[in-house]
Specification:
This protein has one domain. It is built from two helices and no strands.
Amino acid sequence: MAGVLIMISILLLFGGGNYFLASQRAGVYPPKKVLQQKALVIGGAGVATLLLGVLVFTIT
């Protein structure tokens, strides 16, 4: 269970990083602010899932 949560969190963190890097490029269609907001939300979900996975891992 903890392994699945950690894998999901890694995917979310990579997704957030991808949106952040896309916001740094010039001439992207969704405005930079929208991409940065998506990066923040997905990255925050990744961090929360990672903390939950570590918590489950330490409890079991």
